[in-house]
Design goal:
This protein has about 180 residues and is of the alpha+beta class. It has five helices and five strands. The longest helix has 18 residues, at about 125-140. The two termini are about 35 Å apart.
């Protein structure tokens, strides 16, 4: 199942369990980096993350729950927790999810330019190592008085976010970033 399909399914579950409105947000990401010091690799790391949040409104009462466990039992428990929290919250006339038409500008921005670059997403570890070592060497070459750095690094981030709402919106955005 895709992450967008998961978000849609969680919205449907929340509605079946008593929520008047529901919105699910799924985010997945990967960070890779290399730090060097004195011409040697100090740290080479890769980390992944994922999580899902569910916001529900029931009788103008707001509930929210989050989990990083995508197992069926954990997702069911998260839906139940969000609905239960909404039932115990104080009502407010301001507790309402945005309508599809209110989210349309976000979709227009997404279609206006992709923030994802496959070349950045697939940068090899060797690039990060080489970039960090070259940056340290270049910085030392600026002035002979520069003798040490706390650390010098290079890396990249890849992220994707998926949103589904009972109010008619479903979409995704993805992005990459490289840094020195």
């Amino acid at each position: 199942m895709t992450h967008l399909a998961l978000a849609k399914r969680l919205v449907q579950r929340a509605r079946r369990r008593g929520a008047d409105q529901a919105e699910a947000y799924v985010e997945v990401g990967r960070d890779e980096s290399c730090r060097v010091r004195d011409g040697e690799i100090e740290d080479l790391s890769q980390a992944t993350s994922k999580g899902v949040g569910l916001r529900v409104v029931s009788k103008r009462r707001l509930g929210f729950a989050y989990t990083s466990d995508f197992g069926a039992a954990s997702l069911d428990a998260m839906v139940d927790r969000a609905v239960a929290l909404a039932k115990s919250a104080a009502p407010s006339p301001h507790n309402d999810l945005p309508r599809r038409t209110e989210l349309a500008p976000a979709k227009a921005r997404q279609d206006g330019g992709d923030l994802f670059d496959e070349a950045v997403a697939s940068l090899p570890a060797e690039w990060k190592i080489r970039a960090a070592l070259e940056m340290e060497k270049a910085a030392r070459g600026v002035d002979k008085r520069i003798t040490a750095f706390e650390s010098v690094g290079a890396g990249q981030t890849v992220s994707e976010a998926f949103l589904a709402s009972s109010e008619g919106f479903a979409g995704q955005v993805r992005g990459t970033a490289a840094y020195l």
